[in-house]
Design a protein that fits this description.
316 residues, mainly alpha, Peroxidase, domain 1, 2 domains, two-stranded antiparallel sheet, globular, Peroxidases_AS, signal, oxidoreductase, iron
């Protein structure tokens, strides 16, 4: 009995690693050699028209991977009487779906039933980071698309999370505290609606720089007198459209827009990572590459698992 239990435990650790091992850089080279070029072409077109798509795609990728793994489950549209992840409250402002749709349409013409929607998300995110001045990096591909999209499975850190609360979710997905601080640094190209931070304005949160609070109050109002709940602002108030380490420098000055962002610089467990990234841009960029590639391997489906969707918004 003990031997059977030992074998079972060992398999629990080996099988996920075996799945990750099937991902590889250049996975589509033999059967769809232009796959990555096609995705990049679509992303470049949308980036030229709207440079905020980098933040949108990063969020799309993160929200997909942290719910049942990186399997494009967030792309599924709800049907009457059957809601999908997309309708979960945490995904209400996620965007970039049309970019994935456009790339998929072109890929289906070039290489039918070959490139997964999950890989398109991963590649599009990588390309948009590069276009925004961030690091260039290769990503392993070979993911397959999932067969489940359930809003009840969505459990993501919210804008009002503490560092401990956010880390509980990151840790459950195999990420370290350093990697969490790194990935939240993607907010350097992010935007947020007033509803995500208005509760901090009007003097309600003394950890926010007074000038920033005043400026945001002109856009959003205050908790007692909201003005524009759909208004948006950049999370990096300095180099808003550039993927750099300015986000960390700003939260050290109490200029974090979201509560969770500001807490990264105030909590003793994460402040050291923030200070390190603020002082060393190359360190942040390398840490980001390592962290986002690792995140992109979360719960992947490979081999014969899942499917290759023909339409990213619907199961085959």
């Amino acid at each position: 009995m003990m031997m059977k239990l030992t074998i079972f435990v060992v398999l629990l650790f080996i099988l996920p690693l075996a799945s990750v091992a099937q991902l590889k850089v250049g996975f589509y080279a033999p059967n769809c050699p232009r796959a990555e070029a096609i995705v990049r072409q679509v992303v470049q077109k949308h980036f030229n028209a709207d440079k905020t798509i980098t933040g949108g795609l990063l969020r799309l990728h993160f929200h997909d991977c942290f719910v049942d793994g990186c399997d494009a489950s967030i792309l599924i549209d709800s049907k009457k009487g059957n809601q999908s992840e997309k309708d979960a409250g945490a995904n209400g402002t996620v965007r970039g779906f049309e970019i994935i749709d456009e790339a998929k349409k072109l890929l289906e013409k070039a290489c039918p039933n070959t490139v997964s929607c999950a890989d398109i998300i991963t590649l599009a995110t990588r390309d948009s980071v590069d276009m925004a001045g961030g690091p260039k990096y290769a990503v392993p591909t070979g993911r397959r698309d999932g067969l489940v999209s359930n809003p009840n499975n969505v459990n993501l850190p919210g804008p009002d999370s503490t560092v401990a609360q956010a880390f509980q979710i990151f840790r459950s997905n195999g990420m370290s505290l350093n990697e969490m601080v790194t990935l939240l640094g993607a907010h350097t190209v992010g935007v947020a609606h007033c509803g995500f931070f208005i509760n901090r304005l009007g003097g309600s949160d003394k950890t926010m720089d007074a000038t920033l609070s005043s400026n945001l109050g002109k856009l959003c109002g205050t908790p007692s007198k909201p003005k524009n709940n759909n208004g948006k602002t950049f999370l990096d108030q300095n180099t808003s459209l550039v993927f750099d380490n300015q986000f960390y420098k700003q939260i050290l000055k109490r200029q974090g827009v979201l509560f969770i962002d500001q807490q990264l610089a105030l909590d003793s467990s994460s402040r050291g990572f923030v200070s390190g990234f603020a002082a060393n841009a190359p360190s942040f960029q390398q840490s980001f590459v390592n962290a986002i590639i690792k995140m992109g391997k979360t719960g992947v489906k490979v081999g014969k698992a899942g499917e290759i969707r023909r339409n990213c918004r619907a199961f085959n």
